[in-house]
Amino acid sequence: MAAATPAAAPRHSCAKLSVAVEDPKAAGGGAVFVRATWLPTRFSLAVTDGAGAWVADASDAEVRLRAEQWDQPVAEYLALAERYLAFHQPDSTYSFHDAGKGNRRLSWTFERQGTKLEWRWKLQPSPNTQQTIYGILDFLMDANIRLSEEVVRKTQSFDKLKQEAEKCLQQSERFNTEKAEFEQATFSKFVGVLNSKKAKLRQLRDKVAELESADKPPKDEEEENSTDRTELFEEGSDKEASVHDEPSETGSGDPHSSPEKSAATSRGRGRGRKRANK
User: Are 52 and 117 in the same domain?
Assistant: First the structure.
């Protein structure tokens, strides 16, 4: 046997509505409090102006009949009614008038497809006015306590988030500062290393240039060396020529040789030439 579907939990609402009243000087001063209990197919109302209390209990049949009159599904009819009775709508006109025999009629207006319409519900005097008013005030006090607690929680949560945001901001600023300092230090080290490498390259380049200069003598020195060798060669040739020429002029190349030896040498040469002629 299938399990029964649990009934939907009722929703409760309470709104302060500004209404048009027959006697503006009456208690309540043109405002009423409407407490409503909303169920899937019906709803109930409890209204007070501070002096009296009225109630209405819309049954399933009544709600279905009203929904059919307006060509609406029951759920859509209840949703529209909750919209105007759970919250005060500024564009709606509310009224709370006498309906005879102590009854009151609560009405409100709304627009549908460009046409202004009015819904009305008749309320009867509460069998226990004080109990009804107490129930409305108790609901308002509970709602106020819940809202106050929620405001406190939201405020504490906001303060906590604000403190965390400030901490995050401080951390972000510190990280940015540390990042800038790290980048500056890294850049300074890089510049120092780069400059030292450049200096080392210049030293190596100068050393290579010195070695090349030492292995290859300059052009001026080569020309000077070649000139010196040429002069030495010419001097050597002049000395040889003078050695061969002196005997012909003086008769002997040896200063210690005698005249007789020179004369004999000349005669010997003369005989040799004569033999050759013969």
Answer: yes
